[in-house]
Amino acid sequence: MRITLVGSRHFGVTTLNMLREHSVSIARVVVADAEDRLAAAAKAAGIDVVVQANPKLVVASEIAPDTDLIITAHSHARIGKDALAAARLGGIGYHPSLLPRHRGKAAVEWTIKEGDPIAGGTIYHLADRMDAGAIAAQDWCFVKKGETARDLWERALAPLGLKLLADVIDYAKVHKALPAKIQDEQFATSAPSLS
């Protein structure tokens, strides 16, 4: 399976490392910033790196030829329809909430702010609407009393994201398709950015 990874920062690097250990071919890494640590890690591993022409949008020409699946890992760019069409299975991303709850940015912060006793993570299909694509995999964890968003991310949600991504990749290898369950819009929440 050939993967194009679109991402940034620490979670992008840990996703890259998980993919390298998971018997898939990472055809290309796409980043918004040439100085990002994900770009450096990919170059060090001998993986082709492309810097997005527009930091808010990934286009088809930035996706590696013969890509089976696009994976986003801490990317704030929209993956264009043409880019999704360039990959045999389209694209998936990880969102650190139990979608459709806490769509959008600052999902972990909103989990804490809302006092949710349970948090979770979702692997979802990339789609036109942000964080609204079908669910490929989902799991949950408890939120500890007094835990900060950063604590929750580092303790539970980042590792959960890596596990769920690996599970979905394993599924795709066997079934040559991705699981998909439509999100139930009656439970959707979308919070404004935290100030």
UniProtKB/TrEMBL annotation:
InterPro entries: Formyl_transf_N, Formyl_transf_N_sf. GO terms for cellular component: cytosol. It comes from Bradyrhizobium stylosanthis. Pfam families: Formyl_trans_N. It comes from the Bacteria. This is Methionyl-tRNA formyltransferase. Residues 64-157 form the Formyl transferase N-terminal domain. The keyword Transferase applies. One of its GO terms (molecular function) is methionyl-tRNA formyltransferase activity. The keyword Transferase applies. Keywords: Transferase.
